[in-house]
Amino acid sequence: MNQTSAQADLESAMLRALRLADPALSRFDPMRRIISHDDFSRGHCGWSQLVGNYEDTLDTMLPGYAQHTSAMLSTLGHWDAGSHGGIDSSYALKIATRPRPGAQNVAIKRLTMRERCPIRFEAYVTFKPEATELRLSETDVRSFGFLFDLQGGDGDGPIDRVMPHMRFLNAMGGSHVQKWQFKSKSTDFKAIGDSNKTASHYHLAPDDWQDLPGGEQRLCYNEIATKVNWSYIRFDFDLRAMQALSFRCNDREFDVSAFEPIRIPAMKNLWCMLNFCLFAETDAAKRAFLYVDSVCVSGDF
Amino acid sequence: MLAESTTAILARNEDWTGTAATEPYEAGWAREAVIFVRALKEPTGPQPRAIVEMSPDGMHWLPEGTALALPETEGGIAMARISHFGNWLRLRADFATGSGATVLVTLHLKS
């Protein structure tokens, strides 16, 4: 049923009022349809480990994926101050790397899309290194970020698999960099096994990150390794044009006109794929933790 | 409300020799846990008993009291039930020189 303009205005006003009055949603600014809303006080909410492709033996998995482990539910328990907790529940999703420089870990939510329309990804996150030293350790986490893995439908004609990546490069080689970066190139695909059915590429390889113009930002890290503050991120992406629409972190709105996703030829088993990933990367021989208090994914349909 | 439950992969296709342990895992929401270990390849040498460890902070570890005999053959599987563990869990094994195993370690949690 087509809505009249007046009906649409009334719906928008009601949606806005209902969501503003709901403490769980009021801190988000979702588009018309909420696709998922995860607060991690109800389990892992569909965020699982990003496992690599393999065939016949797990030895065929690329090393970048082999290092990944399962995300966990955490109260952000610290040795000196006890549990920090989430924004309004005890739990957050925790993505932890292994303790070696450059180690990464990724959590993923796998969906498919109904409509080619703008979507919005919102999350409250924070990051810290493992508090193994009595020092600030503000340059021990290399980065945290998010990516989407997208592909249109089998009836869409010639299309690409599209993977927008964004990371906050906190530190590199001990230098406190603090800027947002995107990635438009991936590593080459490698065939997995010999059946010609599976291939793999490690798109989070450390190469080819580009600075988001104007993307320098200092986040609230706080004053010891066990004090954390939650930050808000919001990224809008158009599933029809397959282009970024906007990006915000806390009080800063960034220009995404130069943002380009990774684009690779469509793959034969990924039609209508709508995947969301969150990742952490350590710069030191110390675990890096990305904590996710909550995530809201919405779409304009 | 259904009880919460999840399966976490603590180690997948990892070659264990010397002193080996899974990455720390937080499971404070769960009342019970089961750890399974499957040998993905033919183990080499005598296989030790792996021990479950718990921790106050994910950094300092001590034995929880549960142990399991690691599988002696490829495809072999071992299991341990754990309860009253606080928050942090990991599995540790000390292999003698020349011994080793390639393991899949999974943790099954229920509230």
Describe the structure in brief.
The complex is a heterodimer of chains A (301) and B (111). Helix content of chain A is 7%, strand content 44%.
CATH class wording of chain B: Mainly Beta
* Count of domains of chain B: 1
Strand content of chain A: 35-45%
Which ranges of chain A are low-confidence, i.e. pLDDT below 50, for 5 or more consecutive residues?
A: none
pLDDT average of chain B, as an integer?
97
Q: How much helix is in the residues of chain A?
A: under 10%
How many DSSP-defined strands of chain A?
A: 21
Number of helices of chain B: 0
The pLDDT mean of chain A sits at: 96
Helix content of chain B: under 10%
Molecular structure report:
The complex is a heterodimer of chains A (301) and B (111). With 301 residues, chain A is mostly beta strands. Chain A folds into two domains: 1-29; 31-299, Jelly Rolls, CATH 2.60.120.200. Helix content of chain A is 7%, strand content 44%. Chain A contains two helices and 21 strands. In chain A, the strands form four sheets. In chain A, strands 2, 7, 9, 10, 11, 12, 15, 19 and 20 form a nine-stranded antiparallel sheet that branches. In chain A, strands 1, 3, 6, 8, 16, 17, 18 and 21 form an eight-stranded antiparallel sheet that branches. In chain A, strands 4-5 form a two-stranded antiparallel ribbon. The relative contact order of chain A is 0.27. Chain B is an all-beta fold and 111 residues long. Chain B has one domain (5-110): Sandwich (Jelly Rolls). Helices cover 0% and strands 58% of the residues of chain B. Chain B is built from no helices and nine strands. In chain B, the strands form two sheets. In chain B, strands 2, 3, 5, 6 and 8 form a five-stranded antiparallel sheet that branches. Chain B has a four-stranded antiparallel sheet with strand order 1-9-4-7, with no helix packed on it. The chains are: A mainly beta (301), B mainly beta (111).
